[in-house]
Write a structure and sequence with these properties.
The chain is of the alpha+beta class. It has helices at about 5-10, 20-40, 45-50, 55-70, 75-100, 105-110, 120-125, 130-140, and strands at about 110-115, 120, 155, 160-164. It is built from 8 helices and 4 strands; from the N terminus they run ααααααββααββ. The protein is elongated. The chain starts with a helix and ends with a strand.
């Protein structure tokens, strides 16, 4: 009887000399999910810049996958199938976040309240890896108010932008 390690090794082809189409597709799905989890731990702002983490992950993993098909480092058609799985997962997660709004913050990220009625939310700054100086600099560079006492509301958006 197979134990869990043997099952995972077989499904992902960890010890295989050549990978099947199914193993490449499953690997693509696992890498996508693990990448999403890693981005959630790091936080969107530092990772994704102005794009949602879900879009950045697709760009990186799809580019890396398809480049292997182009340069011959992996079998052509199975690698394309892995790329299709990545795009399908991206589409599926976007559809799930649309249909189930309670999952949208996990999939696409959520905004963080940084300033309300002139009061800086230091715990939100800390969770976002921002200092008050960073906040002031970003506000200056976007032409927003720089006197935080005058700010009614400032949020760090999932895109990494700060809306004031």
């Amino acid at each position: 009887m197979w134990n869990l390690n043997s099952l995972i090794s077989h499904l992902l082809g960890l010890d295989a000399l050549t990978l099947s189409v199914e193993q490449i597709c499953l690997r693509a799905a696992v890498v996508y999910v693990v990448a999403m989890l890693m981005v959630r731990v790091v936080g969107d702002r530092r990772f994704a810049g102005k794009y949602a983490a879900i879009d950045i992950i697709l760009s990186i993993t799809l580019g890396a996958t398809l480049s292997r098909a182009i340069n011959g480092a992996a079998p052509f058609f199975p690698t394309l199938a892995g790329g299709v799985v990545l795009v399908a997962m991206h589409w599926l997660l976007a559809a799930v976040s649309f249909r189930l709004p309670q999952l949208e913050p996990w999939i696409k990220g959520r905004s963080r309240l940084l300033v309300q009625d002139g009061q800086v939310n230091h715990s939100a700054l800390r969770a976002s890896h921002l200092t008050e100086g960073d906040l002031r600099m970003i506000m200056r560079s976007t032409g927003s108010l720089t006197d935080l006492d005058q700010v009614e509301l400032a949020r760090l958006e999932p895109s990494g932008d700060i809306s004031v």
